[in-house]
Specification:
The complex is a heterodimer. Chain A is mainly alpha-helical. Helix content of chain A is 71%, strand content 2%. Chain A is built from 16 helices and 4 strands. The chains are: A mainly alpha, B alpha/beta. The A-B interface holds A 212-213, 216-218, 220-221, 223-224, 227-228, 230-231, 233-239, 241-242, 245, 364, 367, 369, 371-372, 374-375 and B 72, 74, 93-95, 98-99, 103-104, 106, 110, 112-115, 119, 122-124, 126, 129-131, 134-135, 138-139, 155, 157-158, 162, 166, 179, 183, 204.
Chain lengths: 375, 270
């Protein structure tokens, strides 16, 4: 048992050293194009952390995180467009004139303030998630019905955003690269480098935040809800409240993720709310390792990076590879890659091929003392 | 009917000593539960005094588990009312009923299998069961002591850091009883605590339950006659959804109606 613990400890340390090294070295080593991609993937890791919190720990499989991701993205894009609209005619973003609008819609106004925007990026998606989640959880809707509801909500938002040309430029979305922040174009190399650092920093901060939530008794309640919710009620806990809180947190994380992704990809559009994208998010977590925070991060970054590399080399083939990967993980590594690793997977594999020695019994049987006979 | 439960329960104790108890801790009045016309419970009346140990027996399908579902808020009765410390429990969600002081042990042991023994007990013992206090602070020294004490009672100290899923069936039963006690409920509802236990474990469980009586009111449901006899308690016999008769084990076994519906058949089978 102690050895297993040590091994787990070391693998965690190694993983973290690797991650930090990559973040520090990346801007010096990678060309700007690659750096920008990596920055985007790090921001996607933040939404994956939220999904791990609600799915891996609490058992809520949401297929609608794209809603909250998009809201964060739109908040950031609206601020960038507004802060650059001063020197345009009418003082409003350019696309409005295409539809003959001369007056800014009311809900755009607060996004002129950077402070409001910085708070809105996570608070609006967080509150919306808590509100929608609370309604569903109150009615004790669980499991696959919850997943279907989240996907339906996603479609509702997708269609709504697509249809609102006069409010938010509909299908085209909001384009940010040509806007300026601190006197620099948002799409410039310098800004992208900064966004990369900010994203890496925020990802680590979010990781610590979620870790704080899942460690300790609060996290134990989440796991208990995942495994046996009625029993949690009889123990005097109100699962609805806990689920609402973590769904809100996951929504807020998705918003942060969406904002960071938007400034690095150059646009916020209804595409963020397409069904496959939200399912992809779940796959990152499943492949990386549900219930392990590092698994969610590694899953999001590595799958996306693999996607861009594969798509460059063999266009068209990525979807097959992704589907195969998902099936492979679900059938052979149900706990994901990190979960498999933590359960002593590499050693088991070596044992199977006869390289390592087989362990005689379960470790816990070795600990059995005589306490059952006494008493 | 008073709104201050602490005071009322003290009054109960005083009244108990004066005139044998007039205000019951738990009272079920005319409870009926119908599942699509099938009456799982019919005009069930039952009352428990503070500090009492009561056994409820009955053949399969007599409504034993349904009756616990009604008390703990899992099921809403079609008719009737449940009073605990003088307050109605109808329309209260499960977690509120649990916080009022009713703990339930399930038929098959239900512990949180992915959590360790210690974490399971910590969830039971934690006092404010709201999210923020749980996030902000760890276990208090008092809570730690209680967990250690509970693990001592059920002899699981050596397994404190083992996940509950790896325990044996009997150990899970005991862990769940310890969790129940850790919630410090006034009323413990215990559903078939000795199902699947060895004789030795059954005896130990009977002693454990008896030792809880006094500080707690305990209601045990089972159909293991030897186990019920060991409890030396008042027995209520449930049959087709209502209470057939009540009394000591000896009285019960002499009652011709009970012999007909339950014991007679049981002895033939044995």
């Amino acid at each position: 048992m102690f050895q297993l613990f040590q091994q787990r400890r070391w693998s965690l340390v190694i993983l973290w050293v690797l991650i930090i090294a990559v973040i520090i070295a990346a801007p010096a080593v990678l060309p700007v194009f690659r750096l920008n991609l990596l920055g985007r993937y790090l921001s996607l890791a933040i939404v994956a952390l939220g999904i791990d919190l609600i799915w891996g720990f609490t058992g809520l499989l949401s297929l609608g995180q794209g809603i909250f991701f998009a809201l964060g993205g739109y908040a950031a894009a609206m601020y960038l467009l507004l802060s650059n609209a001063g020197n345009l005619q009418n003082g409003i973003p350019e696309f409005f004139t295409l539809y003959g609008i001369n007056k800014l819609p009311f809900f755009w106004h607060p996004f002129g303030s950077p402070w409001f925007t910085l708070i809105a990026i996570w608070l609006i998606p967080g509150l919306l998630a808590a509100f929608l989640g609370g309604l569903v959880f109150r009615n004790r809707i669980k499991g696959v019905y919850f997943s279907i509801l989240t996907q339906a909500a996603l479609l509702v938002f997708y269609n709504f955003f697509n249809g609102q040309q006069k409010l938010i430029n509909g299908t085209n979305g909001l384009q940010t690269p040509a806007t300026k922040l601190f006197g620099q174009f948002v799409g410039s190399d310098l800004m992208q480098r900064w966004f990369f650092w900010i994203t890496a920093l925020l990802l680590i901060a979010c990781w610590f935040g979620v870790r704080w939530v899942v460690r300790g008794r609060f996290g134990d309640v989440l796991i208990a809800i995942r495994d046996d919710e009625p029993r949690v009620r009889f123990a005097g806990y109100n699962p609805t409240l806990f689920k609402t809180i973590v769904f809100g947190i996951a929504g807020a994380l998705a918003g942060i993720s969406g904002a960071l992704y938007t400034v690095q990809s150059g646009s916020a559009s209804p595409q963020y709310m397409e069904v496959p994208f939200s399912i992809d998010m779940v796959i990152w977590v499943a492949v990386g390792g549900r219930g392990t925070l590092i698994g969610a991060i590694l899953g999001a970054v590595s799958i996306n990076y693999a996607q861009s590399l594969v798509s460059e080399a063999l266009p068209q083939s990525w979807l097959f590879i992704q589907g195969g990967l998902f099936i492979f993980v679900v059938t052979l590594l149900p706990e994901g890659v990190v979960g498999w690793w933590q359960a002593g997977g590499p050693r088991n594999l070596l044992t199977r091929f006869g390289v390592a020695r087989r362990i005689g019994t379960y470790p816990q049987l070795e600990m059995d003392g005589k306490e059952e006979v006494q008493s | 009917m008073t709104t201050l439960p602490d005071i009322s329960s003290e009054q109960d104790l005083m009244l108990d000593s004066l005139d044998g108890g007039s205000d019951p801790l738990l009272e079920l009045r005319q409870i009926s539960v119908s599942f699509d016309g099938f009456m799982a419970l019919r005009d069930l009346n039952l009352s428990l005094k503070q500090g009492e140990l009561r056994a409820v027996i009955g053949p399969n399908g007599a409504g034993k588990t349904t009756f616990l579902d009604v008390i703990t808020g899992k099921l809403r009765p079609t008719a009737g009312d449940v009073f605990f410390k003088g307050r109605s429990l109808l329309n209260k969600p499960e977690h509120r009923i649990a916080r009022l002081g009713i703990g339930r042990k399930f038929q098959s042991p239900r512990v949180f299998e992915k959590l360790t023994v210690e974490e399971n007990l910590a969830l039971a013992v934690s006092h404010p069961k709201r999210p923020w206090p749980l996030l902000r602070a760890g276990l208090s020294a008092i809570e730690r002591d209680r967990i250690a004490h509970l693990m001592g009672i059920v002899t699981l100290q050596k397994r404190a850091h083992q996940v509950a899923g790896s325990l044996s069936h009997g150990q899970k039963q005991w862990l769940e009883i310890a969790m129940l006690v850790g919630q410090s409920p006034d009323l413990l509802l215990v559903d078939e605590p000795v199902a699947g236990l060895t004789d030795e474990e059954t005896d130990l469980t009977a002693d454990l339950l008896k030792s809880l009586v006094g500080d707690h009111t305990v209601l045990v449901i089972d159909h293991d006659m030897e186990f019920i006899r060991r409890l030396e308690s008042q027995v209520s016999v449930l049959h087709q959804g209502h209470v057939l008769c009540e009394g000591s084990m000896d009285q019960i076994q002499r009652d011709p109606r009970v012999i007909e519906v339950y014991l007679g058949r049981n002895e033939e089978a044995a």
